[in-house]
Amino acid sequence: MEFRNPLRTEHLIRVRNIYRKLRAEEPTRFGGLPIGTSWMRMRYLRGDTIRTLATATMGDIPTLSIHPRAFEWNQPIFLKGLIRHELIHFVLGPEAGHGDLFRSIEQGWEDFEDYVHQRKKFVRALEVGARADGRLHRYECPNCDKVILKGRPLKPESACDDCCGKFNSGVWSESFVLRKVKKVGIEDENTDEGYAHDAEDDQE
For residue 95, how many other CB atoms are within 10 A of its CB? Predict the structure, then answer.
C-alpha cells in the first residue's frame, strides 16, 4: 500500500532532532526507544484537521502523523510537545490511552504548561482560519455555555445533548437550543466537538 503524505526532508530532520533531544533529556522515559527513528514512518495529517494535531499509530509499522501547520508555528515548544505526547503513546502502548500513567508522564515535563498554552493558541488559529473559509461552524449552549464545533451546519433547533440529558430526561427542549456564533471570540475552556440533540429524534 502506498505511504501517503510523507514528511518533507526539512521537516523529517526537525522531527529526528527533537526525537534525539527528548531521548537525551529524559532517558528514564524515552531511553528505551531506538537511537534513530528508522523504526517508524512519519507523515502529515490532513491540513484541514482542527482538533487532531498528531497521532501515533502502532500497526505493523509504527507511524507518527503530525499536522502540517505545526511546523510553521513560531514557538518550537509546541512541535516538541506534540512529538513528546505521541512518543509517550509509543512507549506505553495503545492500552494505556490517556490514563493516569500517561497523564503523570506528560504533565511531569517542565515545559508542559508552556506547551499546553501554545497548543490552545494553535487550535484557536486553526478555528479562526476554518471559520473564515466557511469550514467551521460554532455553536453555544445558552444554559451551560459549552461551545460545540462542527464541520457542517447543524439542523435548525438542535439543542445541547448534555443539558437535554441532565435536565430534561434526554428529551429535546427549547431551553437548550444552541445559538450559532457569528464571530469567533477568545479562547474557551469549555470547547467540545460534542453532540447536539435533534428535535426530530424525539418524534420518531
Answer: 6
Torsion angle defined by CA atoms of residues 23, 27, 32 and 37, in that order, rounded to the nearest 10 degrees? 0
Mean pLDDT of the chain: 87
Per-domain residue ranges of the chain: 9-130, 136-203
Angle at 24 between CA 23 and CA 30, to 5 degrees: 25
Starting at the edge strand found earlier in the chain, the sheet holding 41-44 runs 41-44, 63-66, 54-57
| pLDDT over 70 (residue 115) | yes
Separation of alpha carbons 172 and 169, rounded Å: 9
Q: How do residues 155-200 score in pLDDT, each as one tens digit?
A: 889 999 989 999 999 899 999 999 988 654 434 444 554 455 554 4
Fold of 9-130: Zincin-like (3.30.2010)
Report the distance separating Cα 189 and Cα 200, nearest Å: 30
| Dihedrals phi, psi of 153, to nearest 5 degrees | -65, 140
How far apart CA 54 and CA 63 sit, in angstroms, is 10
Query: Helices 76-92 and 100-107, interaxial angle, to 10°?
Result: 150
- C-alpha grid cell for residue 185? 471570540
Please give the sequence-ordered ranges of beta strands (E in DSSP) within the chain, or none if there are none: 41-44, 54-57, 63-66, 137-140, 147-150, 159-160, 179-180, 191-192, 196-197
Q: What's the mean pLDDT in 116-134?
A: 88
In the chain, the amino acid numbered 173 is S
